Protein: Dolichyl-phosphate-mannose-protein mannosyltransferase
Amino acid sequence: MHDGSLLTAERIGPALPEPGPVPVAGRTPRPVVVAVLAGAGLTVAAAVLAAVRMLPAGSRAGAWRYRYVGWFSWEMLLPFAGGLAAVLALLWLTHRLGPRRERLVVGMWLAAAVPLQLVVRAADEVSLGAVVASDRANSFYTPSLRFTAWDYLTRFQDIIHELPQHARSNMPGKTLFYHLLGTLTTNPAALGVAITAVSSLAALLVYLLVREVLDDRRVALFALILCLLVPGRLYFLPILNAVSPVPILLSLWLFTRYLRHARWGWAAGLGASLYLVFFFEPLPLVMGLTFAALAALALYRRRLDRFGLLKLVSLTLAAFAAAYLGMRLVFGYDLFVNLAWVLADAHDFNDRALRPYDVWVVRNLGDFALCAGIAATVLVGYAAWDAVRRGVARPIAALTLSGLAVLAFLDLVGVNRGETTRLWIFLAVFLMIPVAWVCARSPRVWPFAVVTAASLLQVAATTPMIAFIRP
Structure:
């Protein structure tokens, strides 16, 4: 497998040899076999626990649990069978088309993305439209009908106390996203499908990001497919947490584009996209640790010098400031005043809801595994071990370890307590990159097929059993 990238410029003299490609006829490395089979075995065990209503989903001591609402029947596994058959058929077509038709292959997977996700979550008794229209589950659709986009922005501080709970405790970008979709349709069922499609753009951005950083088509395609099947995304569609990865991944891709082509347009786009992250969902900004890791690696490998870094930061801040001032002058909307209110409300909510830090600092990690997929979590652990063993000054090591640093930071800070399965979606999507990388270390497709099947099984076994989202 190729490990080169835009960050492989020599630092001083000849570079240390990078690991070469895995021979086409080579064997799957034993550690990969162990990790894949361990992840699959743990997934089967979790599916059995869910079937007997014993899989933990939340914490009673932490004052939040997802309740069990169903009883197991074999019919619940039909979406698993249908989804797996579709994935295997698409993998066969991918093989037949070959590496030279890269764009066609990517287009094929993206075209299949929405139907595939709807099939996999078909056992959920709650429709997409019912979730969209529910103030309890969603809270953003109703305000988009009640207020115009202009009123919502210009009078946001005045009307905030009239809004449903989730709309009140979030940035206004989510409601304005419904205003944007409302130019096409206001039908809740159609909006649910549209949100699924927009959420799927995260997979495309992950693909583009991997192509920039690792320059490996196979890893990129595996990551794209895995992103579409992240259990947490499928549990909570069409809740807008499933869309949250899109703005931050757009920012990260623009950042890597600047590292390859140091043009002011990429930096300006980065600044504007970071404003969008603040405006839509600020939690993923903790992935600034990944930006820092890639910048440090680029400096170390002489892909970027100090002047280039200063130029990037200056142009990004200028674009961000232009977006901030433009919104302030045109709409009277102050991003930072709104952000301070949201952060204070989140802190007060944890106190009001009696959600203790010491419980959730442990329970959050279990919720992350449930969101990312149990098999995928095992492979992320293997990728981290490999990164430490073989050296951290490699692109895949920077991506893996920085992603885990984000996980550790958010867990230890303790802002997220309860309902965290959906809050981890943005990070789970990103960490499909090291999962794909581990799978691609094998010249054969079976490790990837097993991990994908495990994710599908987890979704099929838990979605109809556990009330992750109810109107």
Summary: The chain has one domain: 30-133+187-462. The mean pLDDT is 90. Residues 299 and 386 are 23 Å apart (CA to CA). Residues 30-133+187-462 form one domain.
